[in-house]
Write a structure and sequence with these properties.
Elements: E1 5-6, E2 13-14, H1 28-32, H2 37-52, E3 57-61, E4 64-68, E5 72-78, E6 83-89, E7 98-103, E8 108-114, H3 117-135
Antiparallel strand pairs: 1-2, 3-4, 4-5, 5-6, 6-8, 7-8
Length: 140
């Protein structure tokens, strides 16, 4: 990661000076507490896959999870029966699992609810694309 600023309090690194953030990366056990084992397994598979893509920082707060390389490429809400995932791509993609698609000048966000491993497997190519987009110079 090209670092222009490191928070003096939590030591996290950012590409923008004085990046607004909550210090620390949280506790993954907190977001998974009291969740069904199937959902915990799904989350573990997703986190393992994300980390296999390259350097990824996982930031958790309550029931929210951010997956970040140079920038956030996906974020999750851990629900009682599903993982709600928002994947940030450079383009709009149609897929049966996307329940909402929104865009701004920087990226197109695709939202899906993952209930089972099959759902997650269908999202892997999009997560890989989002990761690659997050580390590319096109988003600078």
């Amino acid at each position: 990661m090209t670092t222009s600023w490191t928070c003096p309090k939590c030591k996290r690194r950012f590409t923008r000076t004085n990046q607004r953030h909550a210090c620390g990366t949280g506790n993954r056990a907190e977001v998974l507490r009291n969740r069904p084992s199937e959902l915990v397994d799904l989350y573990n598979a997703l986190e393992t896959f994300a980390k296999s893509l390259g350097p990824v920082e996982v930031v958790t707060r309550e029931r929210y999870v951010l997956l970040r390389s140079h920038r956030i490429f996906a974020d999750l809400v851990v629900m009682s029966d599903a993982l709600r995932i928002a994947i940030h791509l450079s383009r709009k993609v149609d897929h049966r699992l996307f329940i909402k698609i929104g865009s701004d000048r920087k990226h197109v966000t695709h939202v899906a609810k993952l209930h089972k491993m099959e759902d997650f497997n269908a999202m892997k190519p999009f997560l890989r694309e989002a990761y690659e987009y997050s580390i590319s110079s096109r988003r600078a």
